[in-house]
Amino acid sequence: MKPTNATSDPSGAGGVSGTAGMLLAGGGWLALMVLAALAYRFGHAGGGFRAANLSLAVVLAIAALPWLVPRVTLRKAVQRIEMRRAVAGAAIIAGLAVTATSVVQHVWWIAVAALLLGVYGRIVVAGRRGRRLRPAMASAGLYVIGTLAAQLVGGVAAGADALTWLAPVSAILMIAGGVCAFAARWQLSADKFGMTQGGKTTPIWAVAATVALVGAAVVSSQVESGAGGQAGVAFTVLLALCGIALGLTTSARVMPGLSRPRLIALCLISAGVMVIGIGVVTEVTAVAALSGLIGWLGGTAAAAQDAERQPGTRSVACAGVGGGLALLVAAGGMSGRAEVSSHVSWTIGPTDGALLVLGVLGVVTGIVALLVLDDRRLRGIGTEIAAAWKPAGRTVAAATDSGRHDDGDASDGHRSGRGLFIALEGGDGAGKSTQAAAIAAWLEERHGVGVVVTREPGGTETGVKLRDVLLSDGGVPPRAEALLFAADRGHHVDTLIRPALRAGRAVITDRYMDSSIAYQGAGRDSDSEMIADLSRWATAGLLADVTVVLDVDPVEAARRRGDRGPQDHLEKEPAEFHRRVRQRFLDLAAADPDRYVVVDASGDPADVTATIVEALTPFVAAADLDRGEPLAEPVGPVERESPDDDRTRAVPVEPESPDDDRTRAVPVEPESPDDDRTRVIREPVHVESEPIKPEHADYLERLRSQAEAERRARERLRRQREENR
Ligand SMILES: Nc1ncnc2c1ncn2[C@@H]1O[C@H](COP(=O)(O)OP(=O)(O)OP(=O)(O)O)[C@@H](O)[C@H]1O
Ligand SMILES: Cc1cn([C@H]2C[C@H](O)[C@@H](COP(=O)(O)O)O2)c(=O)[nH]c1=O
Q1: Fewer Cβ neighbours under 10 Å: the N or C end of the chain?
Q2: C-alpha to C-alpha distance for 633 and 627, rounded to whole angstroms
Q3: CA-CA distance, 719 to 715, in Å (whole number)?
Q4: pLDDT tens digits for 48-65?
Q5: Cα–Cα–Cα angle for 258, 568, 607, nearest 5°?
Q6: Confidence check: pLDDT of 77 > 80
Q7: Positive or negative CA dihedral for 233, 234, 238, 244?
Q8: Positions of the region Disordered (predicted)?
Q9: What's the pLDDT at 628?
């Protein structure tokens, strides 16, 4: 679901509202940094280190309070107040409160300003489309420049003086943003209020823990900055933000061969170790660099879980919780001295102690995540990590691709000959059977092409027996499973697919070798290249001309399967298994874009068909297909409905020799009085597949009548041409 903000695009795309979004968010972030620094400073002045930590924790918690207001209450409020008025009003009030901190130099006033800033942030975030980090990074950059300039002129302590002018600057930015939003008539659809994009940003606990460690790293920089002063703090914040942004954008390229839950767990463990590292080092640039790396790990983990690659408000809240915990544990004042050897010792201050506690917690949580987030636990993790930088799809695609140029005929790899071989792939419940029927109807009705609809496992009589062994009860052990799927495929290709292709038919198979690579390879965690080799050998290298991957979220697919009835043991595999399967299909498609089409299968079945049909049209146009003629002379006895009924349905029979491509013909229902075309339909599929649902039947009916109208028009044209001659 993409949010639609009809009257504005405050996502930073440009224009008045884009500028408004940048100013509002940038001003808000700057104000938050100023208030945090002031809270720490005043706390420190009043009661030393412990008071400083507590005052910073309290001020951050107060700023977070408005986020606890239920979404429904906010929605009601926004329905009453026009959005642009709310934004402009909040910007003015919060801006004035933050500016006043330069005059009212007391910690309670900072708390008031933090509360008003929190209200402002809640309203502005609800009104902005993007959750981009650019404004935050720009503010941190400004903060670095401001404090560094002050420190260069007046020494390290003077860095804090910059706060007196950074506070009004943040207010000016916020108020200017509010004015722009007002002028641009910034609106907000009430039902989008408080929603992060597509509701997808809820972090799982391991991601939340990683992001919390980023917060801990950043907040601790207030103390660990040592000689760096305010500029050191700002530099740390900036690097952490840049790290997060980098992690969000590069996550997909990080260890592409590693399952995403395992990646998230490794990010958490690494972030934990680095947080401990911040406690050990004292030098400001090392603290900043480590914070940047932890930020990168947090961004990588967040994007590994959230395809939107936008930090959500809940992620910010997690960072806040991590930071708050670090402050509170540090305020406990735990300290000590660790003798590493006779020469090396480590003096642990309260912040180091807090970072040590949180880092160890992070590492332990990461190990738990490694054990529970991936259903394979630690099985094969070493091999997977070793091969993790090789994109799985590419190596396997290379293995299957090498079959393309085998030899000429029976084992000709990717054919250059007749027919069109279409494979439908995707998870269980993605809609392959539904779409196979719709594509067959389209090919038959629109293009007059004889179509064989088949499936794996179970496309032949032998295959039906293998399907039973594979899918009934608990199935068979993994290696036997891989071999039996390959055996079914080998038989299927030799006895049904190749003969039909040689006869110029279009063959639509519901699953092919990619299913083995995805289910046995990625799902079962077997050697994917071996599985691909097995299928390549079994099929003598026959690849589909085009593979359509029906991509649907495994949760939605599970819902569809649930509606359908009892599930087999593969369908009942855990969600993570199905996520790996989905990812492998996508990897395979990405590695060979000329031969794959990925279709979002979450929409209405008719829309999905329309997308597939559009993608297949060039393949159909380029294929050497037998259009509208009988597949072969009927063999064997044919039952007739009347003495002059000579219509046939042609079905390939089990061949008796490798080049035997005979078919069996059986009568079909006439669709119109002059319907003399024949179709090739593989019987087991139609016998065993589910009945077409009424809504799909309507759609097929529409296709049929459209095709009938086109046929009549063509006929009229042909007659006219003959008359003219
Ligand atoms: N686009 C769609 N939207 C909603 N429901 C759908 C859609 N396509 C198919 N369905 C329904 O989802 C269920 C599964 O569809 P279908 O059998 O076509 O999927 P499949 O990919 O062949 O599943 P499997 O691999 O498990 O055989 C059926 O009940 C079907 O009616
Ligand atoms: C071809 C093939 C299939 N599978 C799995 C995938 C499904 O769970 C079942 C087939 O059921 P469907 O309802 O016909 O889709 O078998 C597999 O694991 N490996 C394969 O090669």
Answers
A1: C
A2: 16
A3: 6
A4: 888 888 999 999 999 999
A5: 75
A6: no
A7: positive
A8: 627-725
A9: 57
Report cis status (omega within 30 of 0) of the bond before 457.
yes
Least confident of 318-322, 374-378, 696-700: 696-700
Q: Residues 288-298: pLDDT tens digits?
A: 999 999 999 99
Pocket test residue of 548, 560, 578 for ligand 1, highest count of atoms within 8 A of CB:
560
Question: For residues 84 and 181, is the Cβ–Cβ distance under 8 A?
Answer: yes
Ligand (nearest to CA of 489): 2
**Global ipTM:** 0.98
How many angstroms from the chain centroid is the CA of residue 595?
22
- For residue 271, what are the CA distances in angstroms to 82, 110, 347, 460? 43, 32, 22, 53
Ligand 1 contact via 192 beta carbon (within 6 Å): no
CA atoms within 13 A on the CB side of 235: 22
Q: How far is CA 177 from the centre of its chain?
A: 33
Q: What is the pLDDT of residue 677?
A: 44
Contacts of 71 (CB under 8 A, 6+ apart): 193, 194, 195
Lowest mean pLDDT among 338-342, 356-360, 361-365, 505-509: 338-342
- In whole numbers, what is the pLDDT of the chain averaged over residues? 79
CB of 456 closer than 6 angstroms to any ligand 2 atom: yes
pLDDT at 264: 92
Q: How many helices (H) and strands (E) does the chain have?
A: 25, 9
Q: For 631-635, what is the mean pLDDT?
A: 32
188 CA from centroid of ligand 2 (Å): 46
- At 346 the three-state DSSP class reads strand
Lowest mean pLDDT among 190-204, 462-476, 520-534: 190-204
| Encoded amino acid at 376, one letter | R
The model's pTM:
0.61
For residue 437, report the distance from its CA to the centre of ligand 1, in Å.
11
pLDDT (mean) for 470-480? 91
Higher pLDDT, 163 or 190: 163
Contact predicate 314/322, CB 8 Å? no
Two tokens at 4? 């639609």
The ligand 2 atom nearest the CA atom of 470:
16
Indicate the CATH number for domain 200-389.
1.20.1250
CA atoms of 273 and 294, how far apart (whole Å):
10
- For residue 571, the ligand 2 atom closest to its alpha carbon is 8
> Whose C-alpha lies nearest to ligand 2, atom 8?
570
Q: What gap in Å lies between CA 576 and CA 581, rounded to an integer?
A: 9
Report CA(690)–ligand 1 centroid distance (Å): 10
Let me know: does 457 contact 542? Beta carbons within 8 Å. no
CB 567 within 8 A of CB 530: no
Q: What pLDDT, in 10s, does the model give residues 305-334? A: 764 445 567 788 888 899 999 988 888 877
Is residue 218 a contact partner of residue 291, using CB atoms and an 8 Å limit?
yes
Say yes or no to pLDDT of 392 above 90.
no
* Beta bridge partners of residue 422, listed in sequence order: 508, 546
Tokens of 281: 């080092």
Contact 512, 456 (CB under 8 A): yes
Q: Which two tokens stand for residue 15?
A: 């224009």
Q: Would you tell me how many other CB atoms lie within 10 Å of the CB of residue 534?
A: 23
Q: Which of 425, 432, 434 to mutate to test the pocket of ligand 1 (most atoms within 8 A of CB)?
A: 434
> Tokens in use for 99?
């500016």
Q: Is 665 exposed, middle or buried (0-12, 13-18, 19+ CB in 10 A)?
A: buried
Q: Which two tokens stand for residue 542?
A: 């026959």
Task: Sketch the domain layout of the chain as residue ranges.
Answer: 1-195, 200-389, 390-725
Name the band, by pLDDT with cuts 50, 70 and 90, for residue 192: very low
